[in-house]
Specification:
- There is one protein chain.
- The protein is of the alpha/beta class and 243 residues long.
- The protein has 8 helices and 8 strands.
- Strands 3-2-1-4-5-6-7-8 form an 8-stranded mixed sheet, sandwiched between helices.
- Strand 1, helix 1 and strand 2 form a beta-alpha-beta unit.
- The structure holds NADP nicotinamide-adenine-dinucleotide phosphate.
- The site of NADP nicotinamide-adenine-dinucleotide phosphate has 33 residues, from helix 1, strand 2, helix 4 and helix 6.
Length: 243
């Protein structure tokens, strides 16, 4: 049966690979990006996009998230999967060289955006008594990366958000899982570590395939777990401690 999926950061990188995969599976996708800049090139890579709607909003702004929730409720009767994937990598810099603005930008784009989407979609999931939230973190959310303090802090925060949501929703069939990819060949990686490094990383299609298997239940994970997908392999699955 066709599912309704929301994917943030859908215009490029991992979000675009996920969008393609879910559409191929016959699902309906609401894709979110900050700008329209990459839509044309994104659509050119999707053979059949009749079940895709793109939405431009800044996920760090609560008013814009609320506006999207209102639009979504008019257009869709239920949500099956929410994937909080939008992210900001920034530039490599020592902790003391981060401006407050830069540090806050990491928290806003990588963590608060996911919090806002969860805040406004959990009540819908709970009213259905069913659904799945997949929060995209990073290897940098499992062990901090030097010169990426703001990014690492925001990605550690994603694991905490997932665990709290999982523990708060044991009374319904709402599963919340964190996906921690290792490096992927995207603009974010290239901006951080250069093009030569980026092309050596795993592809977004590989990671997207594994995420689809999680969504399909082919990779069974307990709610609150995190899974590491690194160097073209699943290298770890961790279940959250209960106490
Ligand atoms: N690339 C890696 O090596 C790597 C490794 C581990 C984890 N990750 C994580 O995987 C996820 C995807 O990364 P990626 O490399 O595919 O990213 P990317 O290519 O840089 O794409 C980022 C996406 O997020 C959207 N976005 C950014 N800020 C936004 C905002 N405020 N509101 C709405 N949308 C916003 C962008 O929209 P526009 O196109 O309009 O700018 C774009 O669609 C991120 O969470 C990232 O941290 C990446």
């Amino acid at each position: 049966m066709s599912r309704t999926v929301i994917i943030t950061g859908a215009s490029r990188g991992l979000g675009l690979s996920l969008t393609r995969r879910f559409l191929q599976a016959g699902d309906r996708v609401f894709g979110i990006s900050k700008t329209q800049q990459y839509w044309k090139s994104a659509l050119a890579t999707i053979p059949d996009h009749k079940n895709l709607s793109f939405h431009v909003l800044d996920l760090t702004k609560e008013s814009q998230v609320l506006k999207f929730v209102r639009i979504f409720k008019v257009k869709a009767s239920r949500i099956d999967i929410l994937i909080n994937n939008a992210g900001y990598g920034g530039r490599l810099m020592r902790t003391e060289d981060h401006s407050l603005n830069e540090f806050e930008r990491h928290l806003s784009v990588n963590l608060i955006s996911a919090f806002l989407m969860c805040k406004y979609f959990i009540p819908i999931f709970r009213s259905q008594k069913q659904g799945m939230i997949l929060n995209i973190s990073s290897m940098a959310g499992k062990r901090a990366v030097p010169n990426l303090a703001g990014y690492s802090v925001s990605k550690f925060g994603i694991l905490a958000l997932t665990q709290a949501i999982a523990k708060e929703n044991t009374d319904v069939d709402l599963k919340c899982v964190t996906v921690c990819p290792g490096g992927m060949n995207t603009q974010m990686r290239s901006d951080l570590f250069g093009e030569e490094d980026a092309v050596k990383q795993q592809s977004t299609d590989f990671v997207a395939d594994k995420i689809i298997k999680i969504a399909d239940g082919e990779i069974p994970l307990a709610s609150g777990s995190d899974i590491v997908i690194r160097h073209n392999k699943i290298t770890a699955v961790e279940v959250p401690p209960n106490s």
